[in-house]
Amino acid sequence: MGYIVFSHSLVTLSTSSSTSILAAPFSFLFSGQFSSFPFLLIHSLLRSKSLNVLKPVRDSINQNSEYFTEENTITIDWEDQEDIEDIGSPWEGAVIYRRNPSITHLEYCTTLERLGLGKLSSDISKTRASVMGLRVTRAVKDYPNGTPVQISIDVTRKKQKMRLDGIIKTVITLGCNRCGEPAAEGIFSNFSLLLSEEPIEEPEIIDIGATFEEGFKSFYGSNPEVGEDDDDASIDWDDRLYFPPEEKEIDISKHIRDMVHLEITINAVCDSRCKGICLKCGTNLNTSSCNCSEEVKEKGYGPLGNLGKQIQQKLS
């Protein structure tokens, strides 16, 4: 049984005895049982040795066939990838929570560069962070001259669980939506993490068709102890981490980085008085002017265009 492969530039017909290639602008794939018309048409073209269009193709295949030998073939065994050294992520270890029953509030400080977000850091973001009162503390050893990221966390301890509720404060550099110049965007983002001493098992089916009150009653029944954890149900499964009792610390850097990523927007503005750019020549109107004439077209309202004037005439 043969098959035909249609790519953007080639049509390949492969049978048990021979393989031929014909140039054609198709992008389809037929395998197994395909229609007889295109198969017979292409098959007849390939079998016809009198066609000059196929001669350069056959010659090219014959000349290059020597390169497709076992000696020139590279075999990749993907099972051997275990030997590749894992260099880790650049943000690992930036923010680490250490277990301490006597502490209910924590303050962390890091930088955008330490979180692997150096592209969002610039002199503009550093200046705005300084105006907002954000400073890089002395505890930050890596990238002490970067844009500061301050994290405040409140710790709530429950039975075999710990909940971390925090806020992230920093400044990122984005492109101005009006002129395209760098713009500083302040970030105040809330987050919640649930650290469980038991392995996290995400349910296969999540019922979101009921209200919170009805859902908890039907799922938990009348158990008052479970009802105390109703607030934790709003935490996403990706924000629930396994933190066994024998472990003393856990890295939450990735979640902090993800929260900063979610604050990237296309609505950043460098200044509320930004004039933007000329839509015709692209000149930045904040720094210079252009001679492009602005054509102001009157808004037409169709058959109701003069209705306002007619009503005013009748009322007068």
UniProtKB/TrEMBL annotation:
InterPro entries found in the cross-reference section: YceD (IPR003772)
Protein name (database record): Large ribosomal RNA subunit accumulation protein YCED homolog 1, chloroplastic isoform X2
Organism whose genome encodes this protein: Herrania umbratica
